[in-house]
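Crash report, auto-generated. Payload:
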Amino acid sequence: MTGFIIRRATTADAPAIWRIIGPTIRAGETYALAPDMGEGEAVAYWLGPDKETFVAVAEDGQVLGTYYIRPNQAGGGRHICNCGYMTDAAATGRGIARAMCLHSLDHAKTRGYRGMQFNFVVSSNVRAVTLWQALGFSIIGRLPLAFQHPRLGYVDALVMFQPLAKD
Amino acid sequence: MTGFIIRRATTADAPAIWRIIGPTIRAGETYALAPDMGEGEAVAYWLGPDKETFVAVAEDGQVLGTYYIRPNQAGGGRHICNCGYMTDAAATGRGIARAMCLHSLDHAKTRGYRGMQFNFVVSSNVRAVTLWQALGFSIIGRLPLAFQHPRLGYVDALVMFQPLAKD
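Recovered output after restart:
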């Protein structure tokens, strides 16, 4: 977790955010987003008004990763949050996803959220599943063949959840 | 299932749809929607461009219930659909919710969906949970205390799923 900081994203980060989320969206292997989504639409989604968005930034200013946090539901469900994380493929192995998830858990507690839910973790994304479990998430549901992977075909998606204790 | 038909909703149905969904949204007991949502916003949500919306209409033209069907996720998740159903409180017991759900399952198969997912069934809504189970849905996940019920406090929400066989 050395060599970078996590700060709030601004609209000035939009090009850097697209450089990270664009390839992941295009690949279509880990997020249930349209692979042909345009840059404008993707950045508007990631920085949407329903979300708080953060970036992980190296000492030289390079954006290495980004995440958002938002209420997972409205009304009676708004005390549970949802996050999405993406890391620069060239920066894997530096603990960026782990640091962003820990940051989001802290931030969620500050915000008063009582739980964090991931609605759709693609089961073939073993690296992510393992990391989320290491950071306290449980698999609370398995959606059978709910994701069409471009190479692997239909694979399960997982619902993962972590209650957040009040500090 | 006698005494009413199910047909596509049009914008002309908007006032009738609001008469059904408004009280349910205001009550805030069964859907994770903001209870203070305005009529315009609620109708725009229910008839949104991402959805196909239907109404159950009595022989005298009165709208008794309404449902929508939409892809539950984008990209690699768009082969699983999601639905929401609401029935006029004054018309309960006539099999309207059951008929709408059966209609939606047929429609989903016609559309080529491979499964139907309910993301957030409030566990205290026992009537709904029992009906969905009777119609082939399984509880595949339980979200602990994920819904704040206005009278009961925090209750679990359920993820329910049904694979759709190709006819």
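Post-recovery validation: The CA atoms of residues 30 and 125 of chain A lie 6 Å apart.
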